Amino acid sequence: MNSDWLKQELDGLADSIRQLAEQADVLQRIAELCTESLRNGGKVMFCGNGGSAADSQHLAAEFVGRYKLERPAMNSVALTVDTSILTAIGNDYGYDDVFRRQVEGIGRAGDVLVGLSTSGNSRNVLLAFEEARKMGITTVAFTGCGGGKMKEQADIALPVPAGVTNHIQELHITSGHLICELVEKALHG
After folding, report:
1. In 28, 54, 72, 89, which residue has its Cα 20 to 30 A from 19's Cα atom?
2. Which of 137, 93, 91, 143 lies closest to 115, judged by CA?
3. Do residues 1 and 131 touch, judged by C-beta distance below 8 A?
């Protein structure tokens, strides 16, 4: 590894971020959906696997804690954090149902479910989307450039302009931060 490689990697990420700007209207719409849900007493739920699970927790923390503004907590939860729930559902029903059962239990019409998946094909997220749709919960897909099955199933999709896992995840966090800031400003600015 050398500085030329590092520069190439950083230039590639910078190019992806510039391309993400082309989806500013999608980011704005997602923020509007989250704002509407929170304003009406709903919540924003996040789910994903592996690094996307960590990103789910990160983004839920930005909503509940604070992002940039000193303001009241915003109702948000990551469906990736309760090991007792995850292992009970995984053991009793199978790993594909770990998010679906939680949506069924705590989701309400008017909520927003944000599913993160670099491939866009995570079966447990897709099943959570199916359950959410039945319940009147808006679904948002954060995916990689192809979008996968989640792009077709979600109410709104953000297929970020990257094709490798690390850059997809970096763009998901960037997008989540931007959305959080828009929601903060709309509700508490």
Report:
1. 54
2. 143
3. no
Q: Tens digit of pLDDT per residue, the chain (189 long)?
A: 689 999 999 999 999 999 999 999 999 999 999 999 999 999 999 999 999 999 999 999 999 999 999 999 999 999 999 999 999 999 999 999 999 999 999 999 999 999 999 999 999 999 999 999 999 999 999 999 999 999 999 999 999 999 999 999 999 999 999 999 999 999 998
Annotate 80-104 with DSSP letters as a single string. Answer: T--HHHHHHHHHHT-GGGTTHHHHH
CB 137 within 8 A of CB 108: yes
CATH superfamily name and code, 23-188: Glucose-6-phosphate isomerase like protein; domain 1 (3.40.50.10490)
